[in-house]
Every structure is written in structure tokens, then in C-alpha cells.
């Protein structure tokens, strides 16, 4: 807990200094990357060959409604609104990659937060195996309106939860921003995770357990403790401009052989 508090204090100061500067859509320099996955959401509808819409927007509660996953205006819109859905008084939206899986690389989404308190905007990497069976989850971002960026790593063991939070100097629901993760093996025999916002690295962590392929997960989640969820009757949405994944070229060529 002390480590998380120190990270929070550091992040607030860092955000005012250098986060959320203009950034181009590209993985970190210095590595020979090749793109392995891309969806610009510029088709008339969501591509069912690429994505599966979930009945659970956050992977836990069955409040996901497929009708709240909309592709229009060259973007993916994951909508939340007050509407009875089962036992819940609100609906939300979530989806994951149907077939695509990858271990290591650079993972990036350009998205805009939903303009509502009480809601988490999710971009996750999740193994097919549960954490109890050696799997893990990496939150590239679990952000909250208007300015909170929250990165997380869930893995097996008593010390398996890693959390780091930063506050932006701008309202993240006003425009699109880049949220990325570099995940590569290191010289110590483990892997290094480095999180980016708008091309700026904000935190790194080692993960000896992070070696299995992951799928991509996008979604929204209504949560307690972060203000009331009171969207307009038309709802609010987390909007995704694109999702892209890269792999180190030598690794990608090895996987294709």
C-alpha cells in the first residue's frame, strides 16, 4: 500500500510536467516493430470475425448489452445508460478479440473517456487462463472521468496486484488520447512492462509470470466509490478510434515459421 501511495504522489507531479503531450501513432522508437493487428473501426459495423461482444462488459457482471456496442463515424462506441438489464439498472458494453492472441509486443488504443462519473473506461490484456491457474491481466488503462489514468497488473500470488495511478492535466473525455503498453523479455529472464500515455512512458514494472498470449479487451464498467453514475437519457460512451498491436520483427517472423 505504501508503494501505491508513493506512485500516486509521483504521478500527480509528473502529469503536470510532461504527460499528454501531442503524440504520433507509432510504437516506441529503437525497436524494429511489425504490425500484427489493427482495427480502425471504419467499416459500417463491428467485424464479427475480429471481435466477440461480451454479455459482461467487465468480465465479471452480466450487464453487458450487445446493443450498446456501436460502430459509427469511424469509431467504436461502448455505451452506458440507465436502463434495466436483468437485475441491473444500467447497461454497459464490452468486447474482446475472437481469435487474436499475442505474447509480448506493443499494444495501443486511441480512445476518448466517457463523460460521466461512476464509470471506468477499460483497455485490458487478458490470458485465456484465469489468474488462479497461472493467467494474468494487464490493464493498459482503467481510467475514470475526468482525468484519472489507472494502470494495473493482476497475477498469481499474495503480492499479485500492482496498481499505479496518474492524474492528467486535461479532461480526457474532451479528445482522444493514446494508451499503450510495451511488453518485452528482459536480460534478467523476466519481462518488462512499460505503460505509455500519448507516447510518454509513465511507469515500468517487471513481471516474471507474464509469458502467455493475451487477448484484447475493451469495455466500460459502472463502479461504486467514484461518484454517482447519472448519464443523460441517451447515455454516454467510451469511444475508440483504433486499436493496434505490434511485435518485434524477429519474434513475429519466428511465430510465422
Structure in a nutshell:
With 257 residues, the chain is mainly beta.
Characterise this structure.
The protein is mostly beta strands and 257 residues long. It has one domain: Jelly Rolls. It has two helices and 16 strands. The strands form two sheets. Strands 1, 3, 4, 5, 7, 12, 13, 14 and 16 form a nine-stranded antiparallel sheet that branches. Strands 2-6-15-8-9-10-11 form a seven-stranded antiparallel sheet. A hairpin with a 3-residue loop joins strand 9 (137-144) and strand 10. Residues 1-18 and 253-257 have low confidence and may be disordered.
Question: What descriptors fit this protein?
Answer:
257 residues, Jelly Rolls, disordered N terminus, single chain, nine-stranded antiparallel β-sheet, seven-stranded antiparallel β-sheet, 45% strand, 2 helices
- In sequence order, what are the helices and strands, one letter per element? HEEEEEEEEEEEEEEEEH
| Spatial gap, N to C terminus | 45 Å
CATH architecture designation:
Sandwich
CATH class: Mainly Beta
Q: What is the CA-atom radius of gyration, in angstroms? A: 18 Å
Helix content: under 10%
The chain-level mean pLDDT equals 84
Using the coordinates shown, work out and report the CATH topology.
Answer: Jelly Rolls
**What's the domain count?**
1
Percent in strands: 35-45%
Instruction: Give a quick account of the main beta sheet: strands, pairing sense, barrel closure.
Output: 9 strands, antiparallel
- Characterize the overall form: globular
Q: How many individual helices? A: 2
Structural class per helix/strand content? mainly beta
**Secondary structure: number of strands:** 16
Low-pLDDT stretches are 1-18, 253-257
Amino acid at each position: 500500500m505504501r508503494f501505491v501511495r508513493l506512485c500516486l504522489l509521483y504521478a500527480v507531479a509528473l502529469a503536470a510536467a510532461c504527460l499528454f503531450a501531442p503524440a504520433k501513432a507509432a510504437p516506441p522508437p529503437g525497436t524494429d516493430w511489425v504490425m500484427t493487428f489493427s482495427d480502425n473501426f471504419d467499416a459500417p459495423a463491428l467485424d464479427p470475425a475480429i471481435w466477440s461482444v461480451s454479455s459482461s462488459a467487465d468480465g465479471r457482471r452480466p450487464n453487458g448489452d450487445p446493443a450498446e456496442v456501436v460502430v459509427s463515424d469511424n469509431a467504436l462506441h461502448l455505451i452506458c445508460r440507465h436502463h434495466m438489464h436483468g437485475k441491473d439498472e444500467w447497461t454497459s458494453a464490452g468486447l474482446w478479440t475472437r481469435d487474436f492472441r499475442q505474447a509480448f509486443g506493443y499494444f495501443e488504443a486511441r480512445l476518448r473517456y466517457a463523460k460521466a462519473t461512476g464509470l471506468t473506461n477499460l483497455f485490458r490484456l487478458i490470458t485465456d487462463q484465469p489468474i488462479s491457474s497461472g493467467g494474468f491481466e494487464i490493464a493498459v488503462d482503467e481510467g475514470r472521468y475526468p482525468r484519472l489514468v489507472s494502470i494495473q497488473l493482476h497475477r498469481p500470488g499474495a503480492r499479485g496486484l500492482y496498481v499505479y495511478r496518474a492524474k492528467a492535466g486535461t479532461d480526457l473525455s474532451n479528445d482522444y488520447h493514446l494508451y499503450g503498453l510495451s511488453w518485452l523479455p528482459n536480460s534478467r529472464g523476466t519481462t518488462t512492462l512499460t505503460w505509455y500515455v500519448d507516447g510518454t512512458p509513465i511507469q515500468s514494472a517487471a513481471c516474471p509470470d507474464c509469458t502467455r498470449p493475451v487477448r484484447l479487451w475493451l469495455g466500460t464498467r459502472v463502479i461504486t466509490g467514484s461518484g454517482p453514475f447519472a448519464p443523460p437519457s441517451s447515455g454516454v460512451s467510451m469511444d475508440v478510434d483504433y486499436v493496434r498491436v505490434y511485435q518485434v520483427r524477429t519474434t513475429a517472423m519466428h511465430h510465422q515459421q
